[in-house]
Amino acid sequence: MEIAHELAEYVTDLSFEDLPEEVIDSTKKVILDTVASAIAGSSAPGIETLTGLVKEWGGRPESSIIVLGDKVPAPNAVLINATMARARDIDEVHEKAVLHSAVTVVPPCLALTEWVGGIDGKNFIAAVAGGVDIIARLGLSLEASPNITGISSTWQMGTFGAAAATGKLLRLNPEQMINALGIAYSQTAGNQQCIIEGTLMVRVQQGFTAQSGLLSAILAKRGIDGPRGVFQGKFGYFPVYHGDKYDASRITQDLGKVFEITNSSLKPYPCCKLTHSAISCIRKITREHEIDPQDVDSIQVRVNQAAYNLTCHPLESKRRPSSIPEAQFSIPYVVAVALLRGDVFLHDFTAEAITNEEVLSLAEKVTPIVDEATEDRYGREVGPAAVDVITKGKKTFKARMQFVKGHPKNPMTMEEVEEKFRKCAAFSAKPLSERNLVHVINMIKEMEKSRDVSKIMEFLK
Q: What DSSP string describes 171-201?
């Protein structure tokens, strides 16, 4: 059976009652985390421009723009909200699949709650869990890392997951869901070039992906059909984009029994996940030893090839990033910030912050290296980093970090996600009252009791 048929049957049949308690808990954390990311992203560069364009277009007031409050046609709200949620690079990732998933699924699902109305919390949780599961499984099936091939799992797989999640909320039947996936394939795009050049398209591509997924489900609901050999046909997704170099069993094995959302990582730092292990190594070293940044002679960071390609090359521009996205994808920059500041957060990624000469001078001393042992063990995955800080007096301080806070093996508690939510809210384009923040947190924590999830949106403006 073509994989699209199996996935269509799976997601249409999935119910809240099918979800183990740990899946429900993970899903609620991911939803709260994604909303937090969008709130922080509301003030990010590029959002005002995108919002202004959408307002110029006008149209029916169907779904809200998070924080900014205006209602616009649902696909346009999704374009902005998903871009917001990715803008600060602090949203959820699946480390083994090497992709962001929830940021593509949660914004279009929230838009539908306002447009369609009457979507309850149990159906919303099932839709998000199913959509994330499909994205991660598709990503896990690939032999090569997107950071090697340049073909982005985040944006391409995300279109399919967004179509599946929103299609479920639109109550598509299996035949319609196959059409939605086929229509999604026609809109599948996204690449890593914008990342290596550090452009704002890193975040806007996320908006395109979520918007395309929603449009796919809407068109399928209205009777537009799509190709049925979505993934494995002669010119299906895997033959065309990946030369059939994938493992189909990873997509369907234990489908409906194992949910990949439990393997999602929540990010403590607002930058590429491939930089997080190096940041954590520096923080460990500075907690255990008193190191004067002025006394540092050199810093060596050992990573796998995928991390090197995306966050260390070309080294000259990574040491002196010319844009905020480039800084978010730079191991030299974030390592220097962590050593100087003791932490890395949103205030370290502003136009002013990335030109701080003290940080840039220290970044010049960071030398990334591809570690063959790490490459052999982790290959395409997000792997660990090892850091050596060497002083001018030739003292060496070492650390290696594998499971950074937020990893499934070192997870954030709900309380820690709430703390992150509040930290992100401090960067909102418009202040959100304490009352509103409490309401959003509590409504997501108790989402399965909600009869109408759209009420959340009332407190996000």
A: T--HHHHHHHHHHHHHH---BSHHHHHT-TH
In tens, the pLDDT along 51-81 reads: 999 999 999 999 999 999 899 999 999 999 9
Kindly write down the DSSP assignment for every residue of 96-157, as one continuous string: TTTB--HHHHHHHHHHHHHHH----HHHHHHHHHHHHHHHHHHHHTBSS-HHHH-B-HHHHH
**Which tokens in the block code for residue 413?**
């508690």
Q: What is the tens place of the pLDDT at every residue in 320-343?
A: 999 999 999 999 999 999 999 999
- Domains along the chain? 3-268+410-459 (1.10.4100.10), 273-401 (3.30.1330.120)
Cβ proximity of 140 and 96 under 8 Å: yes
In angstroms, the CA 360 to CA 201 distance is: 24
In angstroms, the CA 178 to CA 128 distance is 18
From its phi and psi, is residue 151 left (phi > 0), alpha (psi between -120 and 50) or beta? beta
* β-strand pairing of 71-72 with 63-64: antiparallel
Asked if 342 and 284 touch (Cβ cutoff 8 Å), the reply is no
SS3 of residue 454 by DSSP: helix
CA distance 106 to 114: 13
Helix boundaries (H) for 357-397: 357-363, 372-378
Q: Residue 296 forms beta bridges with which residues?
A: 391
Give the strand pairing for 366-370 and 296-303: parallel
Nearest to 186 by CA among 148, 230, 139: 230
How do residues 262-277 score in pLDDT, each as one tens digit?
A: 999 999 999 999 999 9
CA gap 33, 218 in Å, rounded: 26
Are the C-beta atoms of 317 and 257 separated by less than 8 Å?
no
Backbone angles phi, psi at 71, to 5 degrees: -100, 135
Task: With beta carbons less than 8 A apart as the criterion, state whether 238 and 3 touch.
Answer: no
pLDDT band at 351 (very low <50, low <70, confident <90, very high): very high
d(CA 173, CA 135): 20
Structure tokens at 54: 């959408």
